Amino acid sequence: VSGNLSFLNWLTLIPAIFCFDDKSLAWLFSSATRHRVFEIQQHWLHTKTKPLGWYIRQASSLALAGLLVYLSVPVVQNLLSSRQLMNTSFDCFRIVNTYGAFGSVTKERTEVVLEGTYNSSVDQSGERAQWLEIEFKCKPGSVGHRPCLISPYHYRLDWLMWFAAFQVYSDQTSGFAAWIYSTFF
């Protein structure tokens, strides 16, 4: 609803939880549950034969890993190519694909700077007018400032102002005003 895409960062964290060792997450469970899990682990550790389910799980894990490696070959070739395709799927099931917001990085950083004055009674075109740059919370600006933390909220205006700098406007004021109007209204 808000145009916020930072929830994707949070969705990425969910599968990462499964990479933690059981001991690091043990504090989340009661001591009785931890003791029961320990007993089960000890039972299977000392058993010579593995249950059928263990073999099925191992085989399905290897098959899935092999499928992902096989399907990832064109994706890796695309990433190594000098003419990368962005946001493209390489198989009919759309299991693996490329995501790319930026196919290349620019060598120069252009930026839109908004300025304003506090005193409206002073002639803004005169020498007495004091114009100050309007700072945004998360728009790239002064290189001396530390980058802001945007998760879980995404500062949409700041993000769009950053992309506005990539545009070319023939008339700086009316072209930019038209962009703002078309973006927000």
Automatic annotation (TrEMBL):
GO CC field: endoplasmic reticulum membrane
One BP annotation, GO: protein maturation
UniProt domain Lipase maturation factor 1/2 C-terminal: residue ranges: 95-173
Name of the featured protein: Lipase maturation factor 1
Record-annotated membrane-spanning stretches: 54-76
Record bears the keyword Signal: yes
Keywords carried by this UniProt record: Membrane, Signal, Transmembrane, Transmembrane helix
Pfam families: LMF1_C (PF25179)
Organism, as annotated: Geodia barretti
Highest taxon, organism lineage: Eukaryota
Signal peptide per UniProt: 1-26
